[in-house]
Specification:
The structure holds two protein chains of two kinds.
Chain A lengths: L3 E5 L2 E5 L4 H11 L4 E5 L5 E2 L14 E5 L3 E10 L13 E8 L13 E5 L10 H4 L7 E10 L2 E8 L16
Antiparallel strand pairs in A: 1-2, 3-4, 3-5, 6-7, 6-9, 7-8, 9-10
Chain B lengths: L18 E8 L10 H16 L8 E6 L6 H7 L6 E6 L4 H14 L5 E9 L11 H4 L2 E2 L13 H16 L3 H15 L13 H6 L2 E4 L1 E2 L8 E10 H4 L7 E11 L17 H12 L8 E4 L4 H10 L8 H6 L16 H4 L6 H12 L33 E9 L2 E9 L1
Parallel strand pairs in B: 2-3, 2-4, 10-11
Antiparallel strand pairs in B: 1-8, 1-9, 4-8, 6-7, 9-12, 11-12
Helix pairs in contact in B: 1-2, 6-10, 9-10
The chains are: A mainly beta, B alpha/beta.
């Protein structure tokens, strides 16, 4: 596959032509259709994309459509950005989200814990008032930030249709 | 081919007390060193040789670590007139220090060389900033980094914060408890004339300093400095002929990991760190337990990293780290002081090297505080830990260094007074 070079928020993003795993992963994201690799031997899904099964070590896998809804497992909230692209967007939020799919497998402490920023449904970094609403326990659904042909970044937004905790856990000091 | 009958093919499980740190050296901890990493590295190795009483012809091994921000061992050796029988420059930052001790012991044991200088030289403020500000943060984002840096997830603080947050969620750890790590290390630093920051801070000052990345305030984060550090390892029987009381190495853990090394957050609990696994190597190998340790050097890249490691190496029960770091235990004069130099939060940042150097000096009973020197040239310690005073731990016999690379990776070392 040909490689990709693109600009996102003024940041240069690229995927090398030899990097088949990332090219395929982000191609599905560009179609707004989240896929993960499923091991042909042990049948476990895995994240992030890679070249072998992190549980059984088998090489072969099949890209499999995954429903991308989940619960915030933990987060950070950046107030002092270091990357130039993010300096104008503080505070911004980085979420670790436990997908409902395969949660608690292969052991109870594991989950497909997918990284993304908190964004609006359009995939734009969330404004401060939205950031203040989200914490551990918030139900979120995947949306995408479109970057270029063949490359969209999976992101997270509040799942408006889900039952939400009365008060998600947030760091004490506001 | 069968092995000759006299070949010992067994692997000794323990090398307790067979190796020692015999010399330590460092540049000043500065911002704006005005020197190359080559010049600083040479200075630090020379200082460690002088401290040990070793000539350049007696150093024949060298180890260093870096991440594209330093000078390789051959240049440092060349500048000191050293011919090496072994050297290696490895990639990495935190947790390299103790891991390299293990490598040094291994290569000496295997007969590759006899005496190894381990150094780290870095302009972590004035050249390649450790916090990631500057060239590193502006670099293009490629391939696997699309799952991290593309989200503004890059600096150490940003990468580790989900662990810190989850610890507060899982165990009710409070910001005030964790801030005590900075408070106590700043007290220690005020008794360390070479510390970059010598000012004592309060919990309120930590929590009212500006937010960097929740839950980290500016004063929860270590200082970026320019410095080089070195220590020298050789066999214990050789150590006894040298100038200093040796710090004997009891046991080492080298870059021990949580599962899912490709992305440790996939495996939980994410509020547990690599020390959970490392402790099962460290204590059996060292033949001691946490209760035998007089002082610790738990890596303080952030206030939280000190707490997490002390907890997972078993100095307190899991989840009680917040209490352990705030109840006075880790303060000079307490039961088990931590980072008596002020550590990375206050003395300077050298990826764990300065915490090992400090503990070597503690085991010599000769830390470089402001206590007066006696006729033998050694400090007459007062054990008065008030500001500007002593920082020697009374009768220090056993130390533990707990090195941190990230939540998923750590190293450790136990030493005792020789």
């Amino acid at each position: 596959m040909p490689g990709i070079k693109a600009d996102y928020m003024g940041m240069a993003l690229s995927i090398d032509d030899l990097d088949g795993e990332n090219l395929t992963y982000f191609k599905h994201c560009a179609a707004h259709d989240f896929h993960l690799q499923k091991c042909d031997d042990c049948s476990l899904l895995r994240y992030p994309p890679n070249t072998g099964c992190p549980w059984c070590g088998a090489a072969k896998s099949t890209w499999t459509r995954v429903e991308a809804k989940g619960t915030v497992h933990s987060y950070n909230e950046v107030h002092h950005a270091i990357q130039p692209a993010f300096k104008g967007h503080t505070p911004y939020m980085l979420l670790l989200v436990d997908l409902d799919t395969q949660k608690g497998q292969p052991s109870e402490v594991e989950a497909l814990r997918v990284v993304g920023n908190l964004t609006t449904p359009d995939g734009i970094l969330a404004p401060a008032d939205m950031v203040r609403k989200v914490g551990i326990g918030t139900r979120v659904r995947m949306v995408f930030s479109d970057v270029t042909e063949g490359l969209s970044l999976p992101q997270w937004t509040i799942d408006e249709t889900a039952a939400q905790p009365a008060a998600p856990w947030r760091y004490a000091q506001e | 081919m069968p092995l000759p009958a006299d070949t010992d093919a067994t692997i000794p499980k323990y090398l307790r007390d067979k190796y020692a740190i015999v010399g330590v050296g460092e540049t000043p901890y500065t911002r704006g060193s005005g020197k190359t990493t080559r010049a600083m590295g040479t200075f630090a190795v020379r200082a460690a040789m002088a401290d040990a009483g070793l000539k350049n012809t007696e150093i024949d091994g060298m180890l260093s670590y870096q991440s594209g921000d330093s000078t390789f061992a051959p240049m440092i050796a060349g500048d000191l007139g050293i011919r090496l029988n072994f050297y290696m420059d490895v990639f990495g930052g935190g947790s390299s220090t103790e891991a390299l001790v293990g490598i040094a012991i291994g290569v000496i044991e295997a007969g590759l060389c006899k005496t190894v200088a381990i150094f780290r030289s870095m302009n972590g403020f004035s050249q390649v900033r450790i916090g990631g500000t500057g060239a590193r943060s502006a670099a293009p984002v490629n391939g696997d980094q699309l799952h991290s840096r593309a989200y503004g997830w890059q600096s150490a603080g940003q990468m580790f914060s989900p662990t810190f947050m989850r610890h507060m969620y899982d165990y009710g750890t409070t910001p005030e408890q964790v801030a005590m790590v900075k408070v106590i290390h700043s007290e220690h630093a005020s008794n360390n004339p070479k510390a970059y920051y010598k000012k004592r801070f309060t919990v309120d000052e930590v929590l009212s300093s500006r937010l960097i990345c929740k839950p980290l305030h500016l004063l929860d984060c270590c200082v970026e400095t320019d410095n080089a550090t070195c220590f020298i390892i050789t066999r214990a029987e050789h150590a006894r002929d040298l100038r200093q009381t040796p710090a004997l190495i009891r046991g080492v853990v080298g870059r021990c990991n949580k599962p899912r090394m490709d992305m440790h957050y996939q495996h939980g609990p994410i509020s547990t760190v690599a020390g959970h696994y490392g402790k099962n190597i460290l204590w059996p190998n060292a033949g001691v337990g946490p209760e035998d340790v007089d002082l610790t050097g738990a890596y303080d890249a952030f206030t939280f990293t000190t707490m997490l490691q002390l907890e997972d190496y078993g100095f307190c029960k899991k989840g009680e780290g917040g209490h352990y770091v705030s109840d006075g235990t880790i303060r000079l004069g307490g039961k088990r002081p931590n980072n008596t130099s002020g550590g990375h939060l206050c003395e300077g940042y050298t990826h764990g090297m300065n915490m090992v150097i400090e503990n070597v000096r503690q085991l010599r009973h000769d830390v470089d505080d402001s206590c007066p020197c006696g006729p033998d040239g050694k400090r007459q310690h007062t054990y008065d830990y008030s500001e500007g005073g002593c920082r020697q731990v009374k009768n220090a016999e056993v130390t533990a260094n707990l090195g941190w690379a990230m939540p998923g990776t750590g190293s450790a070392m136990v030493m005792r007074r020789g």
